[in-house]
Amino acid sequence: MSTDTTVNWAAFTAAEPELAKTVEERFAAYTHHVLATVRRDGSPRTTGLEVRFLNGELWLGMMPDSLKALDLRRDPRFALQANPGEGTGMGGGDVRVGGRAVEIPAEDTRTRARYAEEVEPPEPFHLFRTELTEVVRTSVEDEKYLVVQVWKPGEPVRTLKRT
Q1: pTM score > 0.70 for this model?
Q2: Which of 33, 50, 88, 121 is the least crowded, having the fewest Cβ atoms under 10 Å away?
Q3: How far lies 93's CA from each of 72, 84, 98, 117, 139, in Å?
């Protein structure tokens, strides 16, 4: 049964702590990842991005008036692919997070200050917190099976194995 709800990172971590730990480790392995947004004409845009897990949230910080920030203001849907690293090893698997990005307005100085204290971004900046609709991990098991784990809010992780 699929739901049309979203959850923050803390709720996902509470629901699926093992998968959340693996996903965080994959994002922590490299600094830059790939963000996909929706352009004005409906086509996809992919760009590099640094992400942070702080205070139970997955944060997306961006330069002022960057195209990806403008895309998210217009259409908050996104997909975020963790940097797979060099070669084809994909240690820990390939992970992707999808959902909606909610911009933290300049008037929310408390939230922005807490983020800036940890991250020290160049000023000014756009700040978005994420509302997750899907988390996917793809890995290889026993050098034989392709294993895909899919999580959506309100559902347990589904695991699919293929040879």
Answers
A1: yes
A2: 88
A3: 27, 8, 17, 31, 4
